[in-house]
């Protein structure tokens, strides 16, 4: 297991927001993550963890700065961990045109199989396996975990939960990309990371995974009705896929809300309380 | 009165975060401000306004994105207005070396008298006079006002209140520059904006203004004990100045907190509740 190096620490709502760097085996590069440790993490009893996956262009910082989650986490006594959205740094290949929706900042939480992406772009293994092991080895946390995210990160949270029965106590998403194999963002990313075989794409698509899920973990999803990216997100596809197999889904359409962090901040408390309940903290 | 032009709107906690641009008479350039309109602003009764002044390097955006204030404002029914921290744009002179602590992003909420700054750098007139008139003419708000801010903006809030008895119902500050004429940030800015006559500097210095204040409006101040800029802020000078004349001051030293928005976000609710009470909303 790699060692973790503290980058910065800020006191926040009686706990600590900290950023760490470490060498990642999964992504073969240095990775940065942020962690919010509520005051309860200092009190001797292991605290459960909620993993947050951010959307396109984000790093570990956006959520911690903009979502207003620390106040609620401090009240409930849950740790929040926010990884980066892709591998980064020297030697990590990026989109040749510098596009915002592929390459750095756009790992899509999958394991790439195509060159030159396959060596570093393994965010799925990083998020599901390497990062929790690292967190559980280095912080006073329990092995009780939940996962949530926004947009590309909502997609990430949903596929991580659906592909790993028993691994998470609960899952939720804000404005997730529900059906990446059918929309431009997803088709571009999956086509390049995985190649042209559409059957391979389905292994990373929430709407495809729901059909074969062996655990019917309920899904909580918020979607703004004023979301400027609604065509990429396709909540109707998720609704249909869940209905087809009776997968429990609470899809809340929020009138007037867009895709921004103003939307996320408005509903983050609901999501954290939802996870805290599943984690035995409410 | 100039017209205001909507730049963007995001629904937030049932209300709206909006950004506007307008031509400013005070600063002789286009200015941008942000406003948070809580759900109560749609309900027919005029709503009071709290003005937020940001610190060095900020625009109208930092506070609205990072402080988590909208949740509380939506509960209490107060409007928040966040102006920019200086004039900006083509034709507005800036620090020749691009320093972060002078020129654009560093207006210090004073009226400059020295060239080439005197034409545009009149943030005091803008904040105290022009902006409230603009807000009161264009939004469903009352003439009940309070003011608060952080660092350079904490200094701004305190001097605006101290120099204008009756203009604000309440004032507070987070990590304010309390005694600018005695510390490097203030000496650089006041020396260039106002010239070398130190007597002129005192008209814009909280610790100097307290002695002659004709209204003893109580001051609420939070100061992180881990603040990396503590030497520029000098809470002891404020404490001594207030004690010397019996000006009511609640100075709360917060162990472990630094100068960042993580500190601001932690205590913003206390400040908003303090202002709401003075504004008859709690």
Please outline what is shown here:
By secondary structure, chain A is α/β, with parallel strands linked by helices. Chain A is 34% helix and 24% strand. The first copy, chain A, is built from 10 helices and 9 strands.
Topology of chain A as a string of helices (H) and strands (E): EEEEHHEHEHEHHHEHHEH
Largest sheet of chain A: 9 strands, mixed
The percent range for helix content of chain A is 25-40%
Low-confidence stretches of chain A: none
Beta-strand level of the residues of chain A, as a percent range? 15-25%
Number of helices of chain A: 10
Describe the structure.
2 copies of one chain form a homodimer. With about 280 residues, chain A is of the alpha/beta class. In chain A, about 35% of the residues lie in helices and about 25% in strands. Chain A has helices at about 60-65, 70-75, 125-140, 150-160, 185-195, 200, 205-210, 230-235, 235-245, 260-280, and strands at about 5-10, 15-25, 30-35, 45-55, 80-85, 140-150, 170-175, 220-225, 250-255. The first copy, chain A, has a 9-stranded mixed beta sheet with strand order 1-2-3-5-4-6-7-8-9, with helices on both faces. In chain A, helix 2 (about 70-75) runs parallel beside helix 10 and helix 7 packs parallel to helix 9 (about 235-245). The model of chain A has no long low-confidence stretch (mean pLDDT about 95). The interface of A and B includes residues 10 and 70 of A. Chains A, B: Pfam families: Esterase (PF00756). Chains A, B: Its EC number is 3.1.2.12. Chains A, B: Keywords: Hydrolase, Serine esterase. Chains A, B: This is S-formylglutathione hydrolase.
């Amino acid at each position: 297991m790699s060692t973790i190096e503290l980058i910065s620490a800020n006191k926040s709502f009686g706990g600590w927001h900290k950023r760490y760097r470490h060498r990642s085996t999964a992504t073969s590069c240095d990775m940065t993550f942020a962690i919010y440790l509520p005051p309860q993490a200092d009190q001797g009893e292991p605290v459960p963890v909620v993993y947050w996956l951010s959307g396109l262009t984000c790093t570990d910082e956006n959520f911690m700065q903009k979502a207003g989650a620390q106040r609620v986490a401090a009240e409930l006594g849950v740790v929040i961990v926010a990884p980066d959205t892709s591998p980064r740094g020297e030697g990590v290949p990026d989109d040749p045109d510098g596009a915002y929706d592929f390459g750095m900042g756009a790992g899509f939480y999958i394991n790439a199989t195509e060159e030159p992406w396959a060596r570093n772009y393994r965010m799925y293994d990083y998020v599901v396996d390497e990062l929790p092991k690292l967190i559980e080895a280095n912080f006073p946390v329990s092995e009780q975990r939940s996962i949530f995210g926004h947009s590309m990160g909502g997609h990430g949270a949903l596929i991580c939960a659906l592909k790993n029965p028993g691994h998470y106590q609960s899952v939720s998403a804000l404005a997730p990309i529900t059906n990446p194999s059918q929309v431009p963002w997803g088709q571009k990313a999956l086509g390049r990371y995985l190649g042209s075989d559409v059957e391979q794409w389905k292994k990373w698509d929430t709407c495809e995974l729901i059909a074969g899920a062996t655990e019917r973990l309920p899904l909580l999803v918020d979607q703004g009705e004023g979301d400027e990216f609604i065509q990429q997100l396709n909540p109707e596809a998720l609704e249909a896929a869940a209905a087809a197999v009776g997968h429990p889904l609470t899809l809340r359409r929020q009138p007037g809300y867009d895709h921004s962090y103003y939307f996320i901040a408005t509903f983050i408390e609901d999501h954290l309380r939802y996870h805290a309940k599943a984690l035995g903290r409410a």
